[in-house]
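The instructor's notes for this session suggest beginning with a concrete chain rather than abstract definitions. Hand out the sequence below and ask the class to guess, before any prediction is shown, which regions might be ordered.
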Amino acid sequence: MLAVAGFSLITAPITGRWVATSGSRPPLILAAIFMTAGSLLMLTLHTSSPIWWLCVVLSVLGLSNGFNNVGLQTALFAASPREVISTASGLFQMARYMGTILSTVVLGLLFGAHLTTSALHVLAVVLACLGALVLAMSLRLPRRT
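After discussion, reveal the predicted structure:
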């Protein structure tokens, strides 16, 4: 998981500068592409996969996290009227926490007491579908004027 956190940390400041010049749409599109690609790469993992390959797969997902964190917050602030920005920010954080809780439930249902490759592959398909959905939603964001 260090690869996910590390690449998120590296990507976030770069994304901040990118968002300042291009808006939140391009980083969110790239994040969705990395999310989908990383999820599909999880399908290549098996019990004898080398550690370096696991790090590559998790690094792709970490890039997605870095682009998403800054891009989503910027999109929120751009779309919310000034009068309700604090409420919108609170709802945004609540949605993130709910996503964390739901992901824990999904992981518990898939893996139970044992981590298996087949369950990991099911998770990969679910995440790839979510990545495609995020890509479709990101493409609907208005272009920066």
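Then share the key points. The chain has one domain: 2-139. The helical segments are 2-22, 25-41, 51-79, 85-111, 117-139.
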